[in-house]
TrEMBL record:
InterPro entries: MFS, MFS_dom, MFS_trans_sf, MFS_Transporter
Residue ranges crossing the lipid bilayer per the database entry: 30-52, 59-79, 85-103, 124-143, 149-169, 190-210, 230-249, 261-280, 286-305, 317-341, 347-365
Keywords: Membrane, Transmembrane, Transmembrane helix
UniProt-recorded name of the protein: MFS transporter
GO CC terms in record: membrane
Signal peptide segment: none
Membrane topology annotation: Multi-pass membrane protein
CDD domains attached to this UniProt entry: MFS_MosC_like (cd17393)
PANTHER family assigned: BYPASS OF STOP CODON PROTEIN 6, INNER MEMBRANE PROTEIN YBJJ
PROSITE patterns linked to this entry: MFS
Lineage, broadest ranks: Bacteria, Pseudomonadati, Bacteroidota, Cytophagia, Cytophagales
Species for this entry: Emticicia aquatilis
Alphabetized GO MF terms: transmembrane transporter activity
Length: 371
């Protein structure tokens, strides 16, 4: 429920980015700078995420973080000026950071406790939420529903669901997770080196790809493909759908073929998908290209999060928090660079650089052991 809710929020927000661009009459470079606010907030908060986990527990932190995330997402779309929109995105990023580290730490603890593989499936639920959110937002945009009202209604529903399910969630999981983690010495942020550093470099590439798809797919569909309003979000929806499917089967593929092989193949597929959308900028071919990108990048986060949580000598929360802090640079730099390159040259050219980065991560996976 947590993963799908976070994805649903992001799907709605990403589809509303062209609305924000039009509302404030921004060019691509200005939009990129605005989108920088979000990862700045996440990056600033990442080193402190483990404090909240240790202080309040993983599940309580996840629950509180999700409620705050849903509530604060109303602010960027309802802000009356660009400065307030930017500030709101910083706050949203901070809420996401804490929620993200907490919910992924819960998953890795459950995997270790019960000897199961569910990380990829959980991230698949996020992707499913991203797909449904982008489709819902596209329909609502076509119906001319006010974006602030849209995000406000979503926040109310998610908050109600979280409060309704909170006693059940805490009663089932909290004690076992805390017991498993109590001997881990606590989760502390550390400077990366060795295997963790290579994982972070790979994650930078995958995060640039994911960030570009999330923030710029709808803009690409509107400005380059010039599709109808009803289809603006379908590029992101196709991307999210295949990312979701890839993650659902990832828990079977990763143990069978290994994280390295799965992530290497994914990089090649993602590069091909972006190339297709660039060469054939039509509604159907662009959607198809973005679906391939979703399939290619689908297992990246589950593999890298799971591997970061298994680095010898580190507590799970420490590896995840460190991974989040540094790899968030991909989300931070990606949308901004896309905006400036798009303004200077073109958006398709900017997307071609992302395709190259997908090939880079396909090469880097040969240098480190992934799980």
């Amino acid at each position: 429920m947590v993963f799908i809710s976070v994805g649903f929020l992001f799907g709605n927000w990403a589809t509303l980015i062209p609305y924000i661009k039009q509302k404030f009459d921004l060019n691509d470079a200005q939009l990129g700078l605005l989108l920088l606010s979000f990862p700045i907030g996440a990056t600033v908060m990442n080193p402190f995420s483990t404090f909240f986990i240790n202080r309040f527990g993983m599940l309580n932190t996840t629950i509180i973080g999700l409620i705050l995330l849903a509530t604060t997402f109303v602010c960027p779309v309802g802000a009356s000026c660009l400065a307030l929109t930017s500030f709101s995105l910083i706050i949203v990023g901070m809420c996401l950071s804490v929620t993200n580290v907490a919910m992924n730490t819960c998953v890795t603890s459950l995997e270790h406790q019960y000897g199961i593989n569910i990380m990829s499936t959980c991230h698949g639920m996020f992707s499913a939420g991203l797909m449904f959110g982008s489709i819902a937002a596209s329909i609502l945009r076509g119906m001319k529903i006010e974006p602030a009202l849209q995000m406000g209604a979503i926040a109310v529903v998610i908050t109600a669901l979280v409060l309704l399910l909170r006693p059940t969630i805490l009663g089932i999981h909290e004690e076992k997770i805390i017991e498993e983690e109590s001997g881990g010495g606590g989760a502390k942020f550390i400077l990366p080196k060795g295997a963790l550093l290579l994982m972070i470099l790979i994650s930078l590439c995958t995060n640039v790809t994911e960030g570009t798809m999330a923030d710029w797919t709808a803009v690409y569909m509107r400005d380059i493909v010039q599709t109808d309003d009803y289809f603006i979000g379908w590029g992101l929806a196709g991307y999210s759908m295949f990312m979701s499917l890839g993650r659902f089967v990832g828990d079977a593929l990763i143990p069978r073929f290994g994280g390295n092989a799965v992530l290497r193949t994914g990089g090649i597929i993602a590069a091909l998908g972006i190339t297709l959308a660039i060469i054939f900028p039509y509604t159907i071919t662009a959607i198809l290209g973005f679906t391939l990108v979703g399939a290619g990048v689908s297992c990246g986060a589950p593999i890298l999060y799971g591997s970061a949580a298994r680095v010898p000598g580190m507590a799970k929360g420490a590896g995840l928090a460190t991974m989040n802090t540094f790899s968030m640079g991909g989300f931070l730099a990606g949308p901004v660079l896309i905006g400036f390159i798009s303004k200077s040259i073109s958006l398709p050219f900017a997307f071609s650089i992302v395709a190259v980065l997908a090939l880079v991560w396909a090469f880097l996976v040969n240098r480190v052991k992934l799980y």
